[in-house]
Amino acid sequence: MKKFFTQGRLVTLVVAGVLIIDQLIKIAVKTNMYLHENIHVTDWFYIYFTENNGMAFGLEIFAKLFLTLFRIVAAILITVYLVKLVKRTDKVKNGYLVCLSLILAGAVGNIIDCVFYGEIFSESTHSQIASWVPLGQGYSDWLHGKVVDMFYFPIIDTYWPDWMPFVGGDHFIFFSPIFNFADAAISCGIIALLVFYSHYLNTETHANSSHKEAKK
Q: Does the active-site annotation cover 149?
C-alpha cells in the first residue's frame, strides 16, 4: 500500500481530483443556468452563476490576455517545483506537497476556463443558457474565455449603523465575493502553507539558496 501511494501519485491524485470536481461543477452550472441566476440553498449560501475576466474571487486588475499567460507561467513553475520535490532523495512532507498540489490544481482549473471555454461554449446571458458548440464557434477566442464562478456566501447581510461616519446606512455583506472550486483549492493551499508549513517553506528557500551558493 505504501509503495502504491508514492508522493508522485499523491500529487497526481490531488491535482486530478480537484480538476475533475472543478470542471464538473463549472460545466453543470454553465449549461444549466442563466447568467446571474441564483439558487437559494440557505440564507447564507447561494449557487449564483457569474463569470469574470480576472483573477480569483472575481478580481479584475490586468488585461485578460496577461492574466491568462500569467496563470500559465505560474502553473508551469509550480509543476517544475513539484516534480523536483517528488524526485528528491530526501523526501519532503506529504502535507507540503498536498498544499502545493491544491494551488497548482486551482490554477490549472481556471486556466482551462480561460483557454478553452470561449471556443467550446456559446455565450451565457440573462436570457440564454450556454451550450456546447463546434470548436471555434464559441463566444470568444483562445485564451480569452471567462472563468465560471458560482459559490456565494453572504454570511452577514445587513446595514451599517447610521451613527457610523462615512459608511453609516450603507449596505454591508460579509462574505461578498463569488468564487469557484478552483479558487477554494488555491485559497486552502495557500492558507495551509502559511499556517502549517511557513517554517518548512523558509527552510526550503534557504536550502536552495545555500545550494546555489555552494555551486558558485
A: yes
Q: Which residue has the cell 450556454?
A: 130
pLDDT in tens, 127-147: 999 999 999 899 999 888 999
- Residue of 149, 157, 162, 170 with catalytic role: 149
Mark whether 162 is an active-site residue: no
In contact, 188 and 101? CB cutoff 8 Å? no
pLDDT at 169 over 90: no
Q: Are strands 38-42 and 45-52 parallel, antiparallel or unpaired?
A: antiparallel
Using left for φ > 0, alpha for ψ between -120 and 50, and beta otherwise, residue 58 falls in: left
What type of residue is 73? V
199-203: long-range pairs with CB below 8 Å, 24+: 200/92, 200/93, 200/96, 201/96
